[in-house]
Amino acid sequence: MSGTSVVNALAVLLILTSMLVVETRKLRRAAYMYSIQSLVLVAIFLSLAVFMQAEPLYIWSITALITKTFLVPYLIIRTLKTVGNQEEEGPALETNSSIFLAVGLVALSFVIVEPFHMHAVLKLKVALAVSIAHFLLGLLCILARRNALKQILGYCLMENGSHLTLAIMAYNAPETVEIGILTDAVFAVLIMTIIARRLFKVFGTLDTDKFTLLKG
Description:
Elements: H1 3-23, H2 27-51, H3 56-83, H4 95-113, H5 125-144, H6 148-169, H7 175-203
C-alpha cells in the first residue's frame, strides 16, 4: 500500500471517530473517542512525515500524542469527575437530523476540494476533504449539542481539522509553529473546562440552554 493510500485510509477513519464523538451521549465515552481519534491523527502525521519526507512532522506527532491523545481527554474526564455529569442531556438537534447534516457536511467538503490542483495536495485530496469536514463536524457539535463539555469537544474537533489541514498544506512548517498551536489549544481547553466547572457550581447543570441568567 502506498503512502498516499495509507494517509487517505486513516483520514476516513478520522471521520468515523469524529461522528462517534459528536453522536455519543455518554461524555466520558466521547472523551475516549476523541483520544482514539487523536491517536489516528498522530498516525496520519507520521505517515505524512515518511511519505513527504517532512522531518518537522515527527515533532508534530510527538507533541500531538502528548497533548491531544492524553492531556486534553484528561482535562475533560477530570472535569466530569468534578461535576458528576456522566451523560449528555437532550441534544439541540435530534440524532437522525444530526447524522443527516453531518453526511451533508462531509459531502460538501469533497465538493470544496475538487477544484484544487496544487501539486502538494493532488494525491491527498481525500485527506484534505476530511480535514475540512472535520472542522465542520466540530462546528456542528458546538451548534447541535447543549452540554458545555460536549461543545468543548466540538472545539477540539475543529482544532484537529485545522491541524490536519496545516499538516497537508504546510508540512515543512517549523516545529515552533506546531508547538505554538498546540499550546494555545491546550490552554483554551483548560480555560473552558475551568469555566464549565464554575457554571456547574452556579447553575447545577452544564446544559447551555439553561444559562438564561447570562442573557442580556
